[in-house]
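Q: What would this complex look like in 3D?
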Amino acid sequence: MSKTVRACLLIIGNEILSGRTHDKNLPYLAEQLNELGVRLAETRVIPDITQTIIDTVNECRAKFDYVFTTGGIGPTHDDITSDCIAAAFGVPLDLNDEAVKMLRSNYANPDVDLNEARLRMARIPRGAELVENPVSKAPGYRMENVYVMAGVPMIMQAMFQGIKHQLVGGKPMLSGSVGGYIPEGMIAEVLGKIQDEFKNTDIGSYPFLREGKLGTTLVVRGEEQADVDAAVSRITDAIIGFGREVVADEPAS
Amino acid sequence: MSKTVRACLLIIGNEILSGRTHDKNLPYLAEQLNELGVRLAETRVIPDITQTIIDTVNECRAKFDYVFTTGGIGPTHDDITSDCIAAAFGVPLDLNDEAVKMLRSNYANPDVDLNEARLRMARIPRGAELVENPVSKAPGYRMENVYVMAGVPMIMQAMFQGIKHQLVGGKPMLSGSVGGYIPEGMIAEVLGKIQDEFKNTDIGSYPFLREGKLGTTLVVRGEEQADVDAAVSRITDAIIGFGREVVADEPAS
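A: Here is my prediction, written as structure tokens for the whole assembly.
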């Protein structure tokens, strides 16, 4: 029996909740984790409020195998993630020598440019393991099962590439899909029967509209390629059985 | 004293957590709610798992003034939101006459086309108030402080336009912003001081990279236009004080 390894993403930042910034880290992390056999099981977007961050981190690190946070580790007053992580774990937030060294490497004239605000980025909860930031040097870190990463997608992605070898996953979820110019409501009943038959898969149904024509994409996810393929094949037959056209390149929604 | 009215968005669906579908409802809802003086205080993305949906709905409806859900109210087997809402409130899930009537209006030949699967969309928790769906007729609904809406953005938006007059907000958050070709770490210290001075505002700092030049957008949010304007003006002076160029149209990230 394979254990399902579950992760939670905490997106920290008022700018996401205000609608100003559109998160791009969720889809990236979801796909990367899936390849490693780790399921993104929940995501929370929370504001820059100390107690909310502390409580959410503590709840989620107990509940999930891995927690990833993005955002709030920059040099400005609104970057409070590290203070909150230290508080959540009940450890001091130290100026970390290794992190200072990393930061210095980012400046031609570190004695001038590495000012007090930038040094905030070298304050790391005691006991954490640093995560390299090849883009702008200010590191992320791992504290037990919590990975603290930057919010800027390019930096977040670089950090993730540096830690993914540490993650221990279960079986990756495989997926297959088929689309058809058929309304959801027409295929729903037979789809439910196919789902009952293929209990080792999850079949998702997603409507689309293309060039004025209504269609549905059916996505089958499961741990065994044979199950996925068989279910996709049955769904394809069902679409054809209704006399409807199968779509080769169904659009992602 | 104005009370802050807080809302939570629950995005329900495996397709968001797998990275396949990119949510577009959060930014829309955030901006719309803000105009009504309602703060989007948290968002959770949760999978199509019955107990998770029930528990999350119950936790969040107690914690926030309003809860909005998107997704999972279609005709297929993976649409389980209504079952979960009924269970969360401890009420039966009835076939709702008014909802059936709405659905019938969507079909030229309802006696044939309104099959059992489609009738699933007329199952509404007892006591709920329907929310019209001008696009595809299958309604959403309100159950106490929980609004249940479709996941398809076009439909979700139409539903929201139909219910927004019901929402009672506090003072809307006003915002102003200024960008400059200045690194965050350079302006961070003075920015912290400006934040300390303008305690009625929240100042957010967001780095950007444009044409190879590093810059920062500073966003000031507050309930009073005068506070917002004064803080933006002070930040603008600070950028100029560093001899840096102010950006007229700073990019959204």
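A: To summarize the key features: The mean pLDDT of chain A is 95. Residues 225-241 of chain A form the longest helix (17 residues).
Q: Very helpful, thank you.
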